[in-house]
Amino acid sequence: MLLDVRKLEAGYGRSQVLFGPSFSVGKGEVVTLLGRNGMGKTTTVRCLAGLLRPSAGEIHFKGARIDSRAPHAIAHAGFGLVPEGRHIFPNLTVRENLVMAGIKRSDRREPWTLERVLEFFPRLAERLANGGNQLSGGEQQMLAIGRALMTNPDLLVLDEATEGLAPLIRQQIWNKLDALKQTGLAMIVIDKEIDALLRFADRHYIVEKGEIVWSGDSDALESDKQAQDAYLSV
Amino acid sequence: MPKSIDIIRGEHRALASVLNALREIVDGVAAGRFQPDFQLLSAMMVYIADVPEIVHHPKEDDHLFARMKQRSPDAGVIIDRLEKEHVEGYALTRELEHALVPWQGLGQGAFAQFQDCATRYLDFNWRHLNTEEDELLPLARRDLKPDDWAEIDAAFAANFDPFAGPNREYAALFDRIVDLAPAPIGHGGSPRA
């Protein structure tokens, strides 16, 4: 098992958000966290990335417990995050945004380098000298994904990677994620495009009020209209 | 879920995103928000002509529909309709291509003809895609057996990547369309350093 999350509890101040979700991700597996806004998906991701310290529970990544580690240590362990809102550096160029994120790993047969990221996202190669604030939303999203790839992750977590993008650009992002999946990269994806996720992901977890209330594969989710209506429709 | 259904849906999604962009661009030109970009429109025409006719429909006609005719009596009427629509879609695509030429050559005076053709083409394709997704694929999942899916999946595997085409030529074309399409539809028009 690549990632094993056990009975996670976390919150902000006195406000508890997570009430013990447990889930796992295998090597090369694509898993989603689904649910309406405010249910705890991003809080879960923040705990995984070390940005929020859980009050209880355990997070095991590649066999080691990481829930008390700092964010940079978790990134070095092979955890790549594409955060909601992208969080690229607006005053740095595309090249600088990418290079500063780079983590070299000697155990990779085909490591992600600047050249490989630019080959994967040719659009970024045309924008190398542009500042982050000069990019379109879709280009910023490519940069956020490219920056996460520069850390040579074993697990890539994408929090609302297609949010706010036009359908054509969303499709381009999904195309790229499909290509990443074919390389065997494990992913956790949070997104509202259920239709795309049913096709893209292997397994799904639905988060409701800080708990996992449903889990299963795409066939099970697609046929469970009751769960979709109860937990996913707005 | 059978891999071949994944592939069909993936191709539908990719095609739908280009159709949606074409609608936005035609509406934007009509409203004066965009100038016509014939390089972009030509790239879109190649995509919406080639991907259905070369990549997508042969898989459906030769494998999925053929097997469903044997296994799913309820699907006969729907398949007959969809096969006719594949032929009709070919004609509508040619009509749209032919309407692009006078617009490009004669200017805005010939835009209305292209707009009319585009509206017919898009409405037709949305109906067609919805029929396949909402009516045909559920029957396929109900009536085809694992052996059927294994054979269909194997036939589809020759063209596994639903976005790239057999030799990845359509992946580059898709990226080119996204690059050329004006923001916020695509990346076009953003500043270069």
Q: Mind explaining what this structure looks like?
A:
The complex is a heterodimer of chains A (234) and B (193). Chain A has 234 residues and is an alpha/beta fold. Chain A has one domain: P-loop containing nucleotide triphosphate hydrolases (Rossmann fold). Chain A contains ten helices and eleven strands. By secondary structure, chain B is an all-alpha fold. Chain B has one domain (3-180): Four Helix Bundle (Hemerythrin (Met), subunit A) (Up-down Bundle), CATH 1.20.120. The model of chain B has no long low-confidence stretch (mean pLDDT 90). The interface between A and B is medium-sized, with 33 and 30 residues.
Any key phrases for this structure?
heterodimer; A: 234 residues; six-stranded mixed sheet; 35% helix; B: mainly alpha; Four Helix Bundle (Hemerythrin (Met), subunit A)
Q: What can be said about the biggest beta sheet of chain A?
A: 6 strands, mixed
Shape of chain B: elongated
The 3D shape of chain A can be described as: globular
Rg from Cα of chain A:
17 Å
How is this structure best summarized?
The complex is a heterodimer of chains A (234) and B (193). Chain A is of the alpha/beta class and 234 residues long.
How is this fold's topology laid out?
The complex is a heterodimer of chains A (234) and B (193).
Chain A: E1 3-12, E2 15-19, E3 23-25, E4 30-34, H1 41-48, E5 56-61, E6 64-65, H2 71-77, E7 79-82, H3 94-99, H4 114-120, H5 122-125, H6 137-149, E8 155-159, H7 167-182, E9 186-190, H8 194-200, E10 203-208, E11 211-217, H9 218-223, H10 225-232
Parallel strand pairs in A: 4-9, 4-10, 7-8, 8-9
Antiparallel strand pairs in A: 1-2, 1-3, 1-5, 5-6, 10-11
Chain B: H1 3-30, H2 38-71, H3 76-106, H4 111-143, H5 146-157, H6 169-180
